[in-house]
Amino acid sequence: MYRQIKTKPPRPAAPRLARMTANIFAELAKKTKFIDPSLAQSWPALAGERIAALSRPGRITGQGRDKTLEIHVRDGAAAAEVQMEADALIQRLNAFLGPRAIARLAIRQSARAEPANATAEPSDNSPLGAALASFRAAVKRRTPENPER
Q1: Closest-CA residue to 113 (of 49, 59, 55)
Q2: What pTM does this model have?
């Protein structure tokens, strides 16, 4: 008869990348106010240099064909300027994001509104740059080349 050999139980699967990075991405999303990175990078080309200097894109809210893009501006004069260009801006955004992706714009006046060109290339001293540096450090700590975990 055959003798049964006892072996170790199988190792559990490695945690999914999404679970490992969820907290880091949540913190990054809070700091960037949920900006779509491709939209933020393309904002000067989509909005035009004049509007891009006055505003930055925010999060996209809503579902289906009833989506709203929040645009953050510094003051009331900038809000009026963006509002005058709203129809043309919606058309350019829909050409970039897909047909009927954005139904309307919500212009938000905030003291901390920075132009899009400041968020597209984050410096190391900006909140986005600090969050990205934190994410890079966390990824480096998890890589197999680094024996310390």
Answers
A1: 55
A2: 0.56
